[in-house]
Amino acid sequence: MNTERFRRLTGPCLAAALAACYALSAPPVTAALLQQAASNGAAGSDPSESRRTGIVVATEKAAPAVVSITVRRSAVVAYGNPFFQDPFFDFFGPQYRRKEMSSLGSGVIVSKDGYILTNNHVVGASEEGGELEGITVTLADGRQFGAKLIGADNANDLAVVRIKAADLPVIQTQEKADNMIGEWVVAIGNPYGYLIGDTKPTVTVGVISALNRSFSSTSDIHYHNMIQTDASINPGNSGGALVNVDGKLIGINTFIFTGGGQSQGSIGLGFAIPIQKARLVMEELIKYGRIREFTTGIYADPNMEPGGPGATVAGVEKGSPGEKAGLRAGDVIYEVAGKRINTLQDIQDVFKLFQVGESVEILYLRQGEKKKASILLEEKAKRRRL
């Protein structure tokens, strides 16, 4: 007999025989066994436990504190009137009207007092200019509040606004910058604001791709030690939260690199300002309404040769942070905060990344010997001048 035909004919019979044998040898089905099976089945089908991953839990913790920010501006602009194109009508002069503008972004509630961290480019002057008319904050639960701009810092692209409300959800922030390349992170923000009829923020997931990325823009913004992630960050996400799987805020989502041309969305190159830096800026803005100027007390030789070994210290002010760190005239600073110093402009640019209260690591040469120092930046006295 054909083997395949034999398999088809005997298959059902063999299965029935095996089932009968199992039924004869298996223990009797009791009510307790049925109850246990039903219990196991219910547990296996319940998504509340089987699908509640660390990402879900982190989102539940952090998302309520992420808000949508609407900024309204107005500007007086000139406009053309087709009836006044004829030179005969030149005596009417230029025509003006008030133009209303609005922009959307995200923010994060960081205190029960209603302080919200966001980007300066969310609430600051736009490319079109105009006067600030008002700021509206919309919470994930649908509540809306007028907000006050407490302070903004263009150099770090950070701003603080405040709302007055009760029972505010507050995000938990990371204390120590112990981020790891490759760890999971969640980007939370409002890429479409609340225009789509849902006040709850959008969530995207990725990993930390790199750490300590630094950039400078043409608008005098200096991004230092940025967190790079492949979690999608899109227009409107600016000012939102980047959190780890513990639900703790590790950074403020700020900008992305796009593919250019028709590709304006995320291509996996997003960057966030570390919360440790953002917190320092926030504290300055809340307490002083501005970022205080600092001093190192170090004077570099302006006649240094480009491409040389570094910046030569011409003098150190007595009692200054530089003197406290042990620097003195004749030392050659060749690295600041991990950046090689080849020109005087290099050392000036790198110090723009810091502010009062931060420590800056400096590598220098003294009579050919390599040395290291940490300078704690102090506020510049009012009597001093740049």
Describe the structure.
By secondary structure, this protein is α+β, with helices and mostly antiparallel strands. The protein has 3 domains: 64-162, Thrombin, subunit H; 172-288, Thrombin, subunit H (Beta Barrel), CATH 2.40.10.10; 294-379, Pdz3 Domain (Roll), CATH 2.30.42.10. It has 8 helices and 21 strands. The chain has helices spanning 3-25, 31-45, 47-50, 54-62, 120-123, 275-288, 321-324, 344-351, and strands at residues 66-79, 95-109, 115-118, 131-138, 144-153, 158-162, 172-173, 184-189, 202-216, 222-229, 241-244, 248-256, 270-274, 294-295, 298-300, 311-316, 332-336, 339-340, 359-366, 369-376, 378-379. The strands form 4 sheets. A 6-stranded antiparallel barrel has the order 1-2-3-6-5-4. It starts with a helix and ends in a 7-residue tail after the last strand. Mean pLDDT is 80; it is low at 1-34 and 40-44.
Salient structural properties:
386 residues, 6-stranded antiparallel barrel, 3 domains, disordered N terminus, Thrombin, subunit H, 6-stranded antiparallel beta barrel, globular, Pdz3 Domain, 21% helix, alpha+beta
Side by side, the strands of the main sheet go: 1-2-3-6-5-4
Q: Helical stretch count? A: 8
The geometry reads as: globular
Question: CATH superfamily of the largest domain, called what?
Answer: Trypsin-like serine proteases
Unreliable segments (pLDDT under 50, ≥5 consecutive)?
A: 1-34, 40-44
Count of domains: 3
What is the averaged pLDDT score?
80
Structural class: alpha+beta
Distance between the termini: 103 Å
CATH class division of the largest domain: Mainly Beta
Residue share in helix:
10-25%
CATH topology call of the largest domain: Thrombin, subunit H
Counting DSSP E segments of at least 2 residues, the number of strands comes to 21
Strand portion, in percent? 35-45%
CATH level-two architecture of the largest domain: Beta Barrel
Rounded to an integer in angstroms, the radius of gyration calculated over CA atoms is 31 Å
Q: Biggest β-sheet: count, sense, barrel?
A: 6 strands, antiparallel, barrel
